[in-house]
Design goal:
single chain, 278 residues, alpha/beta, 7-stranded mixed sheet, globular
């Protein structure tokens, strides 16, 4: 593990390998993300033949026009099942301009060097190639975070890594050099009968704590959190949790794309327009 890593790379690989065999029982967030990415791709009036799937998981995202799909995943189990290779998203083993579409469903929130991963994705694209990604955003798991804050009182433990909000996502696209950047969010609401079921889902989708300085969860703390979670239940005995999904869209720059007007090229004065309105 490198000294500057936010996440433990080895643990991330192991957690994804642990999740791979039973992933289909806990993949509802990824399915929601894949549907959102497919909807956005359907609105693009061109086809893409050479595709890179970053964090392929079960390999379920297949654009209709794709002729070749290269898949990578940090977990060996997922990579092998999808016919891909094991690699980290911020360490891509591909040549520049090798693809006309790069997609990523549900993994970029746990990449150590997210700005670097986005820059590598842009470099992997040909001019006017499309980048589509989505991952858990900052508004996710508010209920879970609240019940653990209550359970741990004055000595809270860092059990949740920081997540990117939609504004920061847009800034990251610009920083990586994407043209026409767009970031937006959708909310997925799930209702649980118990805290244990939610934690099982997070383990099953490989979405648990990956930070290097992890502190074990005491049985007493877990019991208090479960009580707090149950106290938030509706009349039907279910507690609401939300997963915020941040979607990112960007294009590799190309001369054919719309360009912003050159500074100073306006033919009308703003001051004059405001005087006219007065």
């Amino acid at each position: 593990m490198e000294q500057t890593d936010i996440f433990d790379r080895a643990v991330r690989r192991r957690r994804r390998d642990r999740a791979a065999p039973g992933f289909a029982d806990h993949d509802f967030v990824r399915r929601f993300i894949v549907e959102g990415l497919a909807d956005r791709l359907a609105g693009v009036t061109r086809s893409f033949e050479d595709v890179l799937d970053l964090g392929c998981a079960d390999g379920s995202f297949v654009p209709e026009s794709a002729r070749r799909v290269a898949r990578i995943d940090a977990g060996f189990g997922f990579a092998r099942r999808a016919g891909g290779i094991q690699a980290d998203e911020d360490r891509l083993p591909f040549a520049d301009a090798a693809f006309d579409l790069v997609v990523s469903a549900g993994v970029l929130d746990s990449v150590n060097d997210l700005p670097g991963a986005l820059a590598l994705a842009r470099r992997a694209l040909r001019p006017d190639g499309l980048f589509l990604a989505a991952f858990l955003g900052a508004g996710s798991l508010a209920t879970l975070k609240a019940v653990f804050r209550e359970a741990e009182g004055d000595r809270p433990v860092a059990r949740f890594h920081p997540l990117v909000d939609v504004r920061s996502a847009g800034d990251l696209l610009v920083r990586a050099g994407f043209a026409l950047p767009v970031a937006d969010t959708e909310m997925l609401t799930v209702r649980y009968r118990s805290l244990g079921t939610l934690l099982d889902d997070l383990r099953g989708m490989a979405a648990t704590n990956l930070m290097p300085a992890r502190i074990g969860l005491r049985r007493k703390t877990l019991a208090k959190a479960a009580e707090s979670f149950a106290a938030r239940a509706d009349a039907d005995g279910r507690t609401t949790e939300q997963f915020e999904i941040v979607f990112m869209t960007g294009w590799a720059p190309a001369p054919s794309q719309p360009q912003p007007a050159r500074r100073g090229s306006a033919t009308a004065s703003l001051a004059a327009a405001l005087r006219a309105k007065g």
